[in-house]
């Protein structure tokens, strides 16, 4: 029998946590033959709610679920963790400056990074979902010098999936007909969903749509989808965010299909002019359990400007957290 994989979820009592935990426990995160142990990290005020969710997990009698731990101590939560989903974060509240937001999140992701450094399993894989996700991942990574940088990632898979869906609807094709979609840069309104490499039935997507739609409809619709969901639902994306987290980790562990790639924010090695060390979204494939940035793509002027703008924002965030002593 396989030994259970320990999956730590922070912010477990939140709305993404509620959409995520049941799918992890049912085997969708790692595979239908991989037993899991869940560790739920929450702040003290939310422990009771996490216990309620754990009761419901019990009541599902998932055959793969081999235990649930609930704690407010990162050192306990990450002890022996193989996968860490960092969902809990400090949201931006009214009147809050970016500096305050980054500082509050530094207070969460710094200590969590240190706990991962000291206690996680050697094969730890970290996905940061909590916003600002890229920079929170940068903070956690800086606090974990003994963990290889490639183990720290941030989520742009939801943006990727949104881009697939918008394009599929526009062209009236199934999502499965689209390959090689890319989200570049930051998980923010500056992100750049790239149709110049995406393929639909072997044709370049950008050639199948008019430029005005690409520029004035597609890009802003994908980039501002989060706000549109809040407007419609009265709450931010939860099930779709959980779904994207599942997709990200599943592909990381099990590999991406031949002839396709996906998007993930990974620590830059300098590819495509993205400064080394920034956690930025790239086209990636997963091979042997590691993300690799797809190399050799030609970047046209239109794309270059947009990638650069998003990367500039990431640099500003990095400089701000550096000035605050968070990295
Ligand atoms: P909720 O407010 O419903 O839940 C967050 C949970 O985190 C709460 O239960 C809170 O008690 C907990 N928490 C706060 N600080 C913590 C700490 N130090 N340790 C452990 N737990 C802590 O938010 P939810 O809707 O679940 O969203 C979670 C995060 O995901 C937010 O930062 C949100 O902005 C971000 N998102 C990121 C997305 C992405 O694509 N990368 C998309 C969806 C989502 O907006």
Automatic annotation (TrEMBL):
<protein>
    <recommendedName>
        <fullName>Malate dehydrogenase</fullName>
        <ecNumber>1.1.1.37</ecNumber>
    </recommendedName>
</protein>
<dbReference type="InterPro" id="IPR015955">
    <property type="entry name" value="Lactate_DH/Glyco_Ohase_4_C"/>
</dbReference>
<keyword id="KW-0520">NAD</keyword>
<dbReference type="Pfam" id="PF00056">
    <property type="entry name" value="Ldh_1_N"/>
</dbReference>
<feature type="domain" description="Lactate/malate dehydrogenase N-terminal">
    <location>
        <begin position="5"/>
        <end position="145"/>
    </location>
</feature>
<dbReference type="GO" id="GO:0030060">
    <property type="term" value="F:L-malate dehydrogenase (NAD+) activity"/>
</dbReference>
<dbReference type="InterPro" id="IPR001557">
    <property type="entry name" value="L-lactate/malate_DH"/>
</dbReference>
<dbReference type="InterPro" id="IPR036291">
    <property type="entry name" value="NAD(P)-bd_dom_sf"/>
</dbReference>
<feature type="active site" description="Proton acceptor">
    <location>
        <position position="187"/>
    </location>
</feature>
<feature type="binding site">
    <location>
        <position position="92"/>
    </location>
    <ligand>
        <name>substrate</name>
    </ligand>
</feature>
<feature type="binding site">
    <location>
        <begin position="11"/>
        <end position="17"/>
    </location>
    <ligand>
        <name>NAD(+)</name>
    </ligand>
</feature>
<feature type="binding site">
    <location>
        <begin position="129"/>
        <end position="131"/>
    </location>
    <ligand>
        <name>NAD(+)</name>
    </ligand>
</feature>
<dbReference type="InterPro" id="IPR022383">
    <property type="entry name" value="Lactate/malate_DH_C"/>
</dbReference>
<dbReference type="InterPro" id="IPR001236">
    <property type="entry name" value="Lactate/malate_DH_N"/>
</dbReference>
<keyword id="KW-0560">Oxidoreductase</keyword>
<dbReference type="Pfam" id="PF02866">
    <property type="entry name" value="Ldh_1_C"/>
</dbReference>
<keyword id="KW-0816">Tricarboxylic acid cycle</keyword>
<feature type="binding site">
    <location>
        <position position="112"/>
    </location>
    <ligand>
        <name>NAD(+)</name>
    </ligand>
</feature>
<dbReference type="InterPro" id="IPR001252">
    <property type="entry name" value="Malate_DH_AS"/>
</dbReference>
<dbReference type="GO" id="GO:0006099">
    <property type="term" value="P:tricarboxylic acid cycle"/>
</dbReference>
<feature type="domain" description="Lactate/malate dehydrogenase C-terminal">
    <location>
        <begin position="156"/>
        <end position="321"/>
    </location>
</feature>
<dbReference type="GO" id="GO:0006108">
    <property type="term" value="P:malate metabolic process"/>
</dbReference>
<comment type="function">
    <text>Catalyzes the reversible oxidation of malate to oxaloacetate.</text>
</comment>
<feature type="binding site">
    <location>
        <position position="98"/>
    </location>
    <ligand>
        <name>substrate</name>
    </ligand>
</feature>
<feature type="binding site">
    <location>
        <position position="105"/>
    </location>
    <ligand>
        <name>NAD(+)</name>
    </ligand>
</feature>
<dbReference type="InterPro" id="IPR010945">
    <property type="entry name" value="Malate_DH_type2"/>
</dbReference>
<feature type="binding site">
    <location>
        <position position="131"/>
    </location>
    <ligand>
        <name>substrate</name>
    </ligand>
</feature>
<feature type="binding site">
    <location>
        <position position="162"/>
    </location>
    <ligand>
        <name>substrate</name>
    </ligand>
</feature>
<comment type="similarity">
    <text>Belongs to the LDH/MDH superfamily. MDH type 2 family.</text>
</comment>
